[in-house]
Amino acid sequence: MKSEIKLFENGKRLDGRMPDELRNIKIKAGVLHRAEGSCYLEWGGNKVMVAVYGPREAIPRHTQNPLRAIVTARYNMAAFSVEDRKRPGPDRRSREISKVISEALESVILVEKFPRATIDVNIEVLDAEAGTRCAGLTAAAVALVDAGIPMKDIPVACAAGKINDQIVLDLGKDEDNYGSADLPIAISPRTGEILLLQMDGHLTQEEFDKAFDFALKGCHIISDLQKKAILEKYQSEAGGI
Amino acid sequence: MKSEIKLFENGKRLDGRMPDELRNIKIKAGVLHRAEGSCYLEWGGNKVMVAVYGPREAIPRHTQNPLRAIVTARYNMAAFSVEDRKRPGPDRRSREISKVISEALESVILVEKFPRATIDVNIEVLDAEAGTRCAGLTAAAVALVDAGIPMKDIPVACAAGKINDQIVLDLGKDEDNYGSADLPIAISPRTGEILLLQMDGHLTQEEFDKAFDFALKGCHIISDLQKKAILEKYQSEAGGI
Amino acid sequence: MKSEIKLFENGKRLDGRMPDELRNIKIKAGVLHRAEGSCYLEWGGNKVMVAVYGPREAIPRHTQNPLRAIVTARYNMAAFSVEDRKRPGPDRRSREISKVISEALESVILVEKFPRATIDVNIEVLDAEAGTRCAGLTAAAVALVDAGIPMKDIPVACAAGKINDQIVLDLGKDEDNYGSADLPIAISPRTGEILLLQMDGHLTQEEFDKAFDFALKGCHIISDLQKKAILEKYQSEAGGI
Amino acid sequence: MTIVPSIKRDYLAKLAKNGKREDGRAFDEFRNIEIETGVVSKAEGSARVKIGNTQVLTGIKMGIGEPYPDTPETGVMTTAAELIPLASPDFEAGPPRENAIELARVVDRGIRESQLIEVEKLCIEPEEKVWLVFIDIHILDYDGNLFDAASLASLAALMTTKVPAKRFELGEDYPLPIKEPPISCTSVKFNDVVVMDPSLDEEEIAEVRLTVATDKNEDIRAMQKGLNGSFTRDEIKKVIKASIDNGKKIREQLYKSTGK
Amino acid sequence: MTIVPSIKRDYLAKLAKNGKREDGRAFDEFRNIEIETGVVSKAEGSARVKIGNTQVLTGIKMGIGEPYPDTPETGVMTTAAELIPLASPDFEAGPPRENAIELARVVDRGIRESQLIEVEKLCIEPEEKVWLVFIDIHILDYDGNLFDAASLASLAALMTTKVPAKRFELGEDYPLPIKEPPISCTSVKFNDVVVMDPSLDEEEIAEVRLTVATDKNEDIRAMQKGLNGSFTRDEIKKVIKASIDNGKKIREQLYKSTGK
Amino acid sequence: MTIVPSIKRDYLAKLAKNGKREDGRAFDEFRNIEIETGVVSKAEGSARVKIGNTQVLTGIKMGIGEPYPDTPETGVMTTAAELIPLASPDFEAGPPRENAIELARVVDRGIRESQLIEVEKLCIEPEEKVWLVFIDIHILDYDGNLFDAASLASLAALMTTKVPAKRFELGEDYPLPIKEPPISCTSVKFNDVVVMDPSLDEEEIAEVRLTVATDKNEDIRAMQKGLNGSFTRDEIKKVIKASIDNGKKIREQLYKSTGK
After folding, report:
1. Do A47 and D134 touch (CB under 8 A)?
2. Chain E meets chain A (3+ C-beta pairs below 8 A)
3. Do chains F and B touch (3 or more CB pairs under 8 A)?
4. What are the chain B neighbours of F141 within 8 Å (beta carbons)?
5. In this predicted structure, what is the pLDDT of residue B239?
6. Which domains does chain B possess?
7. Which candidate, B95, B196, C14, F55, has a CA 20 to 30 Å from the CA of C103?
């Protein structure tokens, strides 16, 4: 990450946001017919679709855990979701993201209720523009609720970062490319427990604390949007009767 | 498919054939030692070898169908069968052809007699020159009879097409490359049921009907050659005693 | 293999060795903590690490042999072990070497004692300089003893070859590249039985006999080094009490 | 390898005997179709198509590359389809299986053989540089009849694709040169009844399938028979007729949705 | 997918309650570390690191290739890790699985994001030729805490790497240009106890893992949380503190071992 | 992993004790060999070889490509073998397994190390363009002794190969430049009996295998031991002798079949 480019001027960011301001976020639950739970989320230029299947028997059997369900998140970028066409299929980056999202979701899902089962969380990034792993995890949480999977809490993710020595919330595209640090986190908003945490770049301990505060704040705002989306789904269903 | 090239002149085709004339076809049944049934077929410049194994237990077990046998045709082109060497192994084209041939053969094989079994039909194209899928299916049918697999009928395949606005039977190499439509079909000759049908190119409804008539006619001629080859095999075996 | 380059002059080889002289060999048994048996071997510029696991149940079950253990040697070259970086993972060469080493080791291991089991012999070439298959097999034998796997004998391997029409023992790097024949063998030193034998190049029958004599001689010298390494391991363990 | 659900078969067959389908449609009637274009900002063209609950998204990416040696002055198109596990409990992750390959190849031939894209206008420098067109089909929700949904989404995406000339410093962006689209219509047969635009339930009990692509002149541009059953010649004629009729209506909707 | 060994968990938890670890270490104490460089003659740089019984060998190979179009004047680095079956009865042959990929990517980001290698000095001819740096991590013996061992071995290997200019007829060999190394320290938590440099036993019962890379200015250069447990913010602060403290000592040893 | 069929072993061992083989051959006798060349019109060279019921077809394709950097003036040869499921109920589809790889590599070395193809005459433009020779071995019918059948089919195909210069606008086609072919003969041992040219039954009970390729000067050009049994040195000498003797006869037949 280089920092030569002017990303912050007169107290504002290139896209006009304040340092602690999120991009626009839209969440819609229950958008797919076949999936047991689903969510469509737009976050800035990101567009993400998530479908949840399960709990169902894990196959092949040697992947089963006799004491609890396994959670298999599969983060995938559509070939057309990025500037230069991406070859279809998982690459190393998407496999790592799938792993950390799976682990974060497993922290809150009541996996002990479903021994030998798998819960599959399919995250498709249709349009990508910085912050897709937070967008994917946030949408996945809503889809899990929509699927009726029992969870201790509804997890939520958000990132903070550093641009031109300034700590900012929710890096946008150029900020991600030319910024000097990125700190995506996921939390359980009820308890504040940290479920996902990665950091790339360069932060002093003080900067880390400030970035962490920003990201936490973002998480709580987005958490409200998640709950609103879930409520809307239930209300529309109730209204449909 | 382009049509600029002169493929039809003075009522004849480049290789001297009439519009409704087949290329030369030679069929020989029972040519391999290990296979349970086999057939070697030459059709114009095509050379095809087919070996049938089974019915035998399908492995791995999760591929079994408890009610009937599965038919697995495997169409493969030898690396040296084409002008520019082909990389060994299945490509998308050969996998699609394997699928449509498998489906066509399954229509006539009495699969209900062999639950949990697989019948493997290995089709090797040794020399390729337009029309290999029809050649492969036609040879596969003979090899299945040679293997003693019970069938409702002996399926047979043939194509018709369009060159320079003329409907012709059994496209040859240049006709396939520069013609404007190709219509391969496979039928059950006893009932006239259509087991395989694909069409690429551009046909009016009238042209389609004519091409279909041509292809049907071709099928019936080839059907006789199939039966002759099977008879020869039995006679040579009988003669051997 | 070309022979234009002067590899032998004034009765000596490029590295100063006599025709029947081995490169320096160092063997150390029991160098790894997790492995059930292990060996580190340096042979000229070669550095090889071997770890043995098993006998343990072969998985998946369809790979089991109900009457005896299977021996799975896995010869692998580290990406950094050669001049131009090698892509990680097995290639055709390493798979062939794995096969011939597996077969040679199976000749002496008492596989009947462990039905349904697998004995895994992992051979990692860390630094490569001509003769890695002999180095790998020789180290594997020591690791097997270290793992307590019962064997009829401790196998040992060595190669001879031809450079500038001269038969020599244990080809070095340039000799391997520019020599005109290479004859690696592995034997059971107690009985003289030949467990591995490959030959590339050009040898008259007389030259073959001489090369074979050289390789046998090399095997017996190295066999003593193997036994010394095993003894040292036991003594150091005994000394540790 | 699933066992044909015999109860479902009996139920649908009984309905069909009385001239009915589960969802009240006529035998030769499509479900409701929705076409939305420009749904992915990163793509040069994109469209989301719904046929009933089936939902397919096609995105078009373009790039620059070398032409094939035997066609040095024409652009190159590639079609890929993924039956991603998002869309159905039965789809698995991993490299495309036979069904996805057949789907991609049938859509690809429908576009290629009809010369929909004027690939000869996509040459930048003969033998050196041509435009590449990548057609990527994403199945989002699988409720039957993927062939037609995938084909229609791909047509709509291509018809609204802009060649990204600016990004490659080749002048202004301009619409992808396109000819007349052939419309694909799929029918299946079960218990001697042939129905158009099969639902998932109908597909699961189908014995044989036929896809027919026709153009605005009512000519046939592509056909593909599938599954291990058979058609009579008469049935094929009827399917062609119904495909032409439905094709007309769908073509109109496609034109309207893409502003043509 | 192994079942957590509950007896081991109970035993280690009881010890921890009394402030103890199985091998007598303090909670924030590393095992003994050995660093040996120049262990592979064919490699441009190499190092073998032992942390307790865990043993990792990293080899560096360099070559010449094309730069990425968007960074035409900088060298290219690639990191690969193989959990070869040599190192553990649980590692399998075959393409890298999730664990190996995460390991390689965390080490890679640690080096890349800290700009350890001065890649802008590895340009030979802009847009045409740059140096490629291949970092290959070989796990030889797995007894816990691969992240730190792999990271440290890679640092030591890079710090002793010679650019093989002579082999490519580009003048004399010279040391790979390197900046300050960030030191990676990993902690895990089980039964509300957080321990640094987990042994294999501790890893097997760990609920959550945190790796923190810090530099000599006590700044944070990379973090990675792993496993399906969670940390409180307070625990994270403590882990950062302990990582800085251990990082200092390890950095000294690294400098000494590499002659810097 | 099949269990050695003990009844078959006992039967063949008893026969062998009386100096006999199942099919009446002497221990050092080959089955009948048929060689047919020019069997594939698309190939630059091709041959079908039968040894008893074993049947192998090798096709040669040639193309133009870049030489390896370290041999800028020599052509490139590649050998691939497929144990296609056509040939045996035990062969499976998919990428080549160990047996197919060993087969291809042994045939490849037999050709490469004997310098059969004069690759130094296959340079078109140093460092830029050389002829590529692809040797593709197709097993059609597997009844034992693939090594010798595959090797012989490859020799016959190469000896009748025409360099397709015309297709690449490089003048007239001409025969591939070839030197003296080494003939490969394979023996196996079971119950202390060594037999030449094993049938499938004999292979299935074989403990150890030895392939020896010899030239017309009775020199040894390649050897490969296989399987998990062992030979004594004396047995190896006898196998070499028998391989030279059989090699002579096969060489004569090869010359005759290829018109040399």
Report:
1. no
2. yes
3. yes
4. 32-35
5. 61
6. 16-239 (3.30.230.70)
7. F55
User: Which of the listed CATH numbers 3.40.50.2300, 3.90.400.10, 3.30.230.70, 3.30.1490.190 matches domain E14-258?
Assistant: 3.30.230.70
Residue of B nearest to D2 (CA): B65
Task: Kindly report the nearest CA distance between residue B118 and chain F, in angstroms.
Answer: 12
**Any bridge partners for residue B169, and if so which?**
B160
- Chain D residue with the nearest C-alpha to that of A31: D141
Contact check, Cβ <8 Å, D143/A85: no
A48 lies within 8 A of chain D by CB = no
Contact between residue D31 and residue D185 where contact means Cβ atoms under 8 Å apart = no
Mean pLDDT of chain B: 93
Nearest to A201 among E3, E104, E113 (CB): E113
Nearest chain A residue to E236 by CA: give it.
A194
Contacts of A130 (CB under 8 A, 6+ apart): A44, A45, A46, A171, A172, A173, A175, A176, A177
Inter-chain CB proximity D223 and B197 less than 8 Å: yes
Q: Report how far residue A139's alpha carbon sits from residue D109's, in angstroms, rounded to the nearest whole number.
A: 36
Q: Two tokens at D52?
A: 């009933």
**A105 contacts A18 by C-beta, under 8 angstroms:** no
Taking the C-alpha atoms of residue C154 and residue C226, their distance in angstroms, rounded to an integer, is: 8
- Rounded distance between C-alpha atoms, residue B30 and residue B36, angstroms: 9
Chain E interface mutation, best of A109, A118, A208, A216, highest count of E Cβ atoms under 10 Å:
A208
Q: Are strands A117-127 and A70-77 parallel, antiparallel or unpaired?
A: parallel
Pick the residue from chain A with its C-alpha nearest to E211.
Answer: A198
Asked if the Cβ–Cβ distance from F143 to B33 is below 8 Å, we say yes
pLDDT tens, per residue, chain F with 260 residues: 345 567 888 889 899 999 999 999 999 999 999 999 999 999 999 999 999 999 999 999 999 999 998 899 999 999 999 888 999 998 888 777 888 899 999 999 989 888 899 999 999 999 999 999 999 999 999 999 999 999 999 999 999 999 999 999 999 999 999 999 999 999 999 999 999 999 999 999 999 999 999 999 999 999 999 999 999 999 999 999 999 999 999 999 999 999 87
Residues of chain F whose beta carbon is less than 8 angstroms from a beta carbon of chain C are: 1, 3, 98, 101-102, 104-105, 109, 113-114, 210, 217-233, 236, 240
- Would you call E171 helix, strand, or coil by DSSP? coil
Is 0.85 exceeded by the ipTM? yes
Answer whether B201 touches D (CB < 8 Å): yes
Of D101, D217, D226, the CB nearest to B103: D226
Structure tokens at D188: 């299946």
Is there a contact between C103 and F219 if contact means CB atoms under 8 Å apart?
no
Q: pTM, whole model, 2 decimals? A: 0.92
Q: What is the full DSSP assignment across chain F?
A: -PPP-HHHHHHHHHHHHTT--TTS--TT----EEEEE---TTSSEEEEEEETTEEEEEEEEEEEEPPPTTSTTS-EEEEEEE--TTS-TT--SSS--HHHHHHHHHHHHHHHHTT-B-GGG-EEETTTEEEEEEEEEEEEE-SS-HHHHHHHHHHHHHHT-EE-TGGGTSSS-EEPPB-PPPEEEEEEEETTEEEES--HHHHHH-SEEEEEEE-TTS-EEEEEEESS--B-HHHHHHHHHHHHHHHHHHHHHHHHHTT-
pLDDT of D149-194, one tens digit each? 999 999 999 999 999 999 999 999 999 999 999 999 999 999 999 9
- CB-CB under 8 Å, E53 with C33: yes
Residue pLDDT, tens place only, A74-108: 999 999 999 999 999 899 999 999 999 999 999 99
For residue B38, the chain F residue with the least C-alpha distance is F86
Task: Answer whether B198 touches D (CB < 8 Å).
Answer: yes
Scan for tokens 């900012």, then name that residue: A168
